[in-house]
Specification:
By secondary structure, the protein is of the alpha/beta class. It has ten helices and 14 strands. The strands form four sheets. It has a seven-stranded mixed β-sheet with strand order 2-10-9-8-5-3-4, with helices on both faces. A three-stranded antiparallel β-sheet has the order 11-12-14. It has a two-stranded parallel sheet with strand order 1-13.
């Protein structure tokens, strides 16, 4: 069976090297006589995997022991609620930048808990864009400020992180470790694993220990960040195989080197944007140029009928999951860290040929 080029927004393509290593040890992990899916999360074999995964993340982010690396089930969606439950107390306000569908989902959950102020709001703007720092209005003394660095549906990315004056929290589900960031500026970073880090069912949370210490002590045990810190994310049985795949993926990232990976991500995206911009107008990008994402390239064709044909013929050519999100339509090419350059080159070649035949 040959592998396709998988442009899915998540669960997304994983490094082939990581998949092959997992395959080789699927039945018998390093002579243990059992799979990672079968072994105890308290055993020495899994303990080594768990600790390496956390160490890899800390190293890749350039963070020290003042940060904890946590593995939490429930994906990023649970984090939308856990963050305000822990840090948005009575009489406090948290600032949120509403830049698209996923930041809007975070705002919705925060407002169930407490007072969530919109520091900026570009969610409904067409073409889609991220707000500029000049547009953002921050509340003095806010409990925290929340950003979504990449909107997978809109195809937009926040390239520069603003100064907020309060603890900075970011949903980086779709661009974590995909471009240079000063992670020490953040009090909490979270990401669903299924785009750049591993399979679904796992959220990575990286949190400053002093910030975590401010969390509510009246919450149920499993909703407190301090529980995960105190027990090294082993208070209950964690998603062991997902953490194992994250370990292999971060190992691959270290081996490849972040400078090379960052440059490759930029170049992959530019190839597609050049194909969009360099033609006769047959393809139309949906995001403003200064906000375009390196992870999710979104565009439209002249008609929905042509978009349907484009998706069908691309799939027949081995390029799948190019249909845009159901809420907006169009085409979306998700090209995360592990997506191969050859797949982008194949798409660009197909785009040019499709325009010749249908333009």
């Amino acid at each position: 069976m040959s592998r396709i080029y998988n442009f899915c927004a998540g669960p997304a393509a994983l490094p082939l090297e990581a998949l092959q290593e997992a395959q080789a040890h699927l039945v018998d992990y390093k002579g243990s006589g059992m799979s990672v899916m079968e072994m105890s999360h308290r055993g020495k074999e899994y303990d080594a995997i768990h600790n390496e995964a956390a160490a890899n993340v800390r190293e890749l982010m350039g963070l020290g022991d003042d940060y904890s690396v946590l593995f939490i089930q429930g994906g990023a969606s649970l984090q939308f609620a856990m963050i305000p439950m822990n840090f948005l107390g009575q009489g406090q306000v948290a600032d949120y930048v509403n830049s698209g569908s996923w930041s809007a989902a975070a705002v919705k959950q925060a407002r169930i808990i407490g007072n969530a102020n919109l520091a900026a709001d570009t969610q409904k703007e067409i073409p889609t864009r991220m707000p500029s720092a000049a547009e953002m209005t921050w509340t003095p003394g806010a409990a925290y400020s929340h950003l979504t660095t990449n909107e997978t549906i809109a195809g937009t990315q926040l390239k520069d992180i603003p100064e907020t004056g309060s603890p900075l929290v970011a949903d980086m589900s779709s661009d974590i470790l995909s471009r240079p960031r000063d992670y020490a500026r953040f009090s909490l970073v979270y990401a669903g694993a299924q785009k750049n880090l591993g399979p679904s069912g796992l959220a990575l949370v990286v949190i400053r220990k002093d910030f975590a210490a401010k969390g509510s002590i009246t919450l149920p045990t499993m909703l407190k960040y301090q529980t995960y810190i105190d027990d090294n994310s082993l208070y209950n049985t964690p998603p062991c195989f997902g953490i194992y795949m994250l370990c292999l993926t971060t190992r691959w990232m270290k081996k490849m080197g972040l400078p090379k990976l960052f440059a490759q991500n930029r170049d992959k995206a530019q190839l597609i944007y050049d194909a969009i911009d360099g033609g006769s107008g047959f393809y139309r990008g949906t995001a403003q140029k200064e906000s375009r994402s390196d992870m999710n390239v979104t565009f439209r064709l002249p008609t929905e009928e042509l978009e349907t044909l484009f998706i069908k013929q691309a799939s027949e050519a081995g390029m799948k999951q190019l249909k845009g999100h159901r809420s907006v339509g169009g085409i979306r090419a998700s090209i995360y860290n592990a997506f191969p350059v050859a797949g982008v080159e194949a798409l660009v070649s197909f785009m040019k040929d499709f325009e010749k035949r249908n333009g």
